[in-house]
Amino acid sequence: MSKHSIFLRIYAGLVILVCLVAIFGFLLVQIINYQRAQEYRESLTDGISFVISEGVARQKTEQQRIDWISDASDLLELPIYYLDAKKIDLSRTEEKRIENQQAVVRYDAEKEIAYLVIGVKNDPKHFLYIKVDSLGERQMKALPIFILDYLVYYPGQEQEYIEEIQKHFSYKIGIQKIADINLDSEQVGRLRADQSVILYRDSATVRGTTISIISPMPNQSGSVLVIGPVPMFNWMPFKLAAGITLLSMFLLSLGVYGLIVPIQRKLRQVNDALNVMKTGDMSIRVPVEGHDEMASLATSYNNMSDHIQRLIESQRELMRAVSHELRTPVARIRFAMEMLADEDEYEYRMQQVEMIDKDIEALNTLIDEIMTYAKLEQGTPSLDFEKIVLVDVLEQVAVETEALKTQKDIRLDPLSSDIRVDAERRYLHRVVQNLVGNAIRYCDNQVVISGGIDKITRMAFVCVEDDGPGIPEEDRKRIFEAFARLDDSRTRASGGYGLGLSIVSRIAYWFGGTIAVDQSPDLGGARFTMSWPARRFKKKK
């Protein structure tokens, strides 16, 4: 597969896109969970912070407050400090929480330690500062004690004040009968022994694992204080997972759309160009961008458009030229027939018949040239490449030309019989024959034929030189056009129809080579050189 393959780029793009979306999703989950975890910590501490603050506020003297805080610290097994408010810098958000009787939670992720800042009711000059480095069963069992300490001031009104402080808790607290709670005998026994019970409940619902704390109510036999259920923090709840999944799918869709849009745009360009082509306008070309399959498609379309346009122009030129070329011999034949009808002399009639025969032969030659040119111009001809001895073809053309008794000096440069090239023998013979015939018409006396394989480029070549007037540099490209003749004379002594060099040009093209003309360094006339790959690589099936 090519490194520029559009499919490889799409696959690589998809892999990169999936990795980027996965990284983005992971980071997004971390960011969201950081905020969720902070909110979760605050929701757990808000209620108990309010109760602790109320407990401190009930102490009448500062010493009593310090003693109460010391007892609370021992109970929680956590350090609690009674600090001057000026020693703690609070942000606006934290100040707002303190005003709302909520706790400020500062979490150190590296040390895994949380620091709680709690305001003291009716004492704006001091804060409670709690360092929470661990949270276990000891701390959970202490929570009901603070709530019960708050309720002890409202005997007989516990239910009303539970409902009053419920707004400060994010989880449910309430007083229930033991019989209403699904407990085993051991748990009931512990409650009757004035011990708190912690319940862990796993649920397949969205809530997941929850914790409930049950503590016996003093002076209320059969009643217990129930805190919870408190949901454990879930790092990947259903809503978050669903949201991240949907967002990831949306981003992947956008990414895939971004990968497909360039292909869609290029296909639209080709489709629009084809629609324009159907109207007969061959001037539209598709821009070639990159080196992938779409660029190859655009190149193929442009080449096809160029070829079709060239065929149309060639057909028009062919029709104009053929109509002109046919008129002359047909007119001569008609004139000769008229003369033949009016003439009784046998020798003169035979002379006219001979002229008619020459014109018919000229017509056959013209038709053969036109058919060969059209076959080479319209599409890929059936070429049977084989290894041939180059000197054999050159010698054959030289011998055939000598047999015509042109009175010209035809010389073949020495060439080893070991030189073999890949070529279609019939078309290579036609190339050399046309070049030599063209040189015979224009030379003064001498024509030189040569060939071989270039040692540097490994290209095979045949070369025909003459000592004629040569070809002006500005006309060297035009002579390979169909029916092009530099003197524009249709009746000159040199003859020809202007198709020979065009046929050579097309054969060179289908051989995968080139044809060029310049000045012969030795003879001074024109030098035609056709070169093509000496070895053709067979395509694997």
TrEMBL record:
Q: Name one Pfam family in it.
A: HisKA
Topology versus the membrane, per the UniProt entry?
Answer: Multi-pass membrane protein
Which PROSITE patterns would you find in this protein's record? HAMP (PS50885), HIS_KIN (PS50109)
Q: Which Gene3D superfamilies match?
A: 1.10.287.130, HAMP domain in histidine kinase, Histidine kinase-like ATPase, C-terminal domain
- Bilayer-spanning residue ranges: 6-29, 240-260
Q: Which CDD domains match?
A: HAMP, HisKA
Keywords of the record, alphabetical order, are:
ATP-binding, Cell membrane, Kinase, Membrane, Nucleotide-binding, Phosphoprotein, Transferase, Transmembrane, Transmembrane helix
- A GO CC term assigned to this protein in UniProt: plasma membrane
Checking InterPro entries in the record gives:
2C_sensor_his_kinase, HAMP_dom, HATPase_C_sf, HATPase_dom, His_kinase_dom, HisK_dim/P_dom, HisK_dim/P_sf, Sig_transdc_His_kin-like_C
Q: Residue limits of the HAMP domain?
A: 263-313
Write out the catalysed reaction: ATP + protein L-histidine = ADP + protein N-phospho-L-histidine
One molecular function GO term is: phosphorelay sensor kinase activity
Residue ranges of domain Histidine kinase in the record: 321-536
Where is this protein found? Cell membrane
Has the keyword Hydrolase been applied to this entry?
Answer: no
Enzyme Commission number, as recorded: 2.7.13.3
Keyword Lyase present in the record's keywords: the answer is: no
Its protein name is: histidine kinase
Q: What taxonomic ancestry is recorded?
A: Bacteria, Pseudomonadati, Pseudomonadota, Gammaproteobacteria, Moraxellales
